[in-house]
Design brief:
Elements lengths: L1 H35 L4 H25 L10 H42 L24
Helix pairs in contact: 1-2, 1-3, 2-3
């Protein structure tokens, strides 16, 4: 019966941490998304909701999968050790997920800027004289 209480406490703490982290990411991330999407607030909100949904699913999926324990948990010290390991693992996941999302969007943004800066087909491109065509002024002498 003790393990059921431990799992219940773990689920409560994990869900609370995940929810608080997700709300913070939602509020803070919208400004970045709006800038990345050229000020299109509607698109930024839609993408933010999808990212937060994915964040919740990945985080809570990890929580549920990591509920397994090996061995018996019979003392208060074992309970604290188990909870600290499980919550610590969750905090690492919650910290890593936003960084991965930022890295992906940073890469998307750099590609978008590179495409916008690169001349497309049919656009005027300044011609650069070749080295062979350029003759030094004293070469005719």
């Amino acid at each position: 019966m003790r393990i059921v209480i431990i799992y219940g406490l773990y689920l409560f703490l994990s869900a609370t941490l995940t929810f608080v982290t997700g709300r913070t990411l939602d509020r803070s991330g919208r400004a970045f998304l709006a800038e990345w999407f050229g000020g299109n607030d509607t698109l930024a909100r839609a993408v933010s909701r999808l990212l937060i949904l994915g964040f919740y699913l990945l985080s809570l999926g990890y929580v549920v999968l990591s509920m397994r324990t090996a061995g018996d948990v019979s003392t208060a010290a074992q309970v604290m050790r188990l909870l600290s390991v499980k919550i610590g693992e969750l905090l690492l996941v919650l910290g890593a997920l936003p960084l991965v999302i930022l890295a992906v969007f940073g890469r998307i943004r750099r590609r978008g800027k590179a495409k916008a800066a690169a001349p497309g087909p049919g656009s005027p491109v300044a011609s650069v004289p070749s080295i062979a065509a350029a003759k030094p002024a004293n070469a005719a002498r």
